[in-house]
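Why run this: before we spend reagent on co-expression, it is cheaper to look at a predicted model of the complex and decide which construct boundaries make sense. The entries below are exactly what would go into the expression plan.
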Amino acid sequence: MNAAILCLDLGGTNARLGLVSIDGRVLQRRRWKMSPPGNADSLYDYLGNRIVRFMSGVGTGSRPAAVVIGFAGPTWSAGGYVYCSPNIGQLAGLNIGPELSQRLSMPVLVANDANCAALGEYWRGAGAGTGSMFLFTIGTGVGGGLVADGELWEGSAGIAGEVGHTVVAIDGPMCTCGSRGCLEALVSATAIVRAYRKVLPGGLDHGVPITAKMIFARARHGDAAARAVIARAGKALGVGIANVYHLLNPEVIVIGGGVGRAGRLLIAPAVEMARGLVFGPLRDRLRVSRAKLGDDAALIGGAYLASRKLGL
Ligand SMILES: [Zn+2]
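The model came back. Tokens follow.
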């Protein structure tokens, strides 16, 4: 077996573990429902045991060269440190990289999950062949990541690319971070559901829980309220795209994540809005693409990160 990287993408409800070859192919993957314990030591045991169990099932007799763990929330990969994580609060402040590295006797890198996904799309997805790419990943929350000349830009303290918490409407709805009008408060699945509930007569729609997926399906079937809510979210995304383009001027802006995958109903108004905001002579150069790798992006990007940082 050639060198491979074990990549773990930790979400709030689901976790994905993948063995990824050094050239970016997902060789094996596993998914499970998260039920992380509350204190740090138990959490290290929980993650360590999951990783060991997965490795024992690989069945090749060969160990991966490194482990990469992607988290939602600001994460400082150089120090292996998680500042805070909206989905797994008990991760806050933990030096999880060095701790797990000691327990597993192998390098363990940590990174923001959107940064991992950005690296994956840049390497093997919608950004392949470009010099610079910014990824918006839109799901329950909104994340982002910048890759330029083959390198992830994490900033001085690891929070570069947190585009979900850039403010695009100063009097907009409250965000989970405590600010108002963040992109996440206008475009995420949670925001779309909240906006749709407000315009829906009766609010709860016969008691059936409403999801963003259902709202997109209704919009495709002609529900005017659903279309209007998605178009409005698309315009907010367009403001975010124009801001990123003016600030960083990437060669391509890629839209991914569960909501991003929903497609044209969201992205068409976003691109139209962004083109209207970008400096005139540059409008035709603005390139927006949909992500190609789906849920594998963060796993594949994790392997890229490990190969760059560890010189594999
Ligand atoms: Zn926010």
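The radius of gyration is 20 Å. The CA atoms of residues 238 and 270 lie 4 Å apart. Bring this page to Monday's planning discussion.
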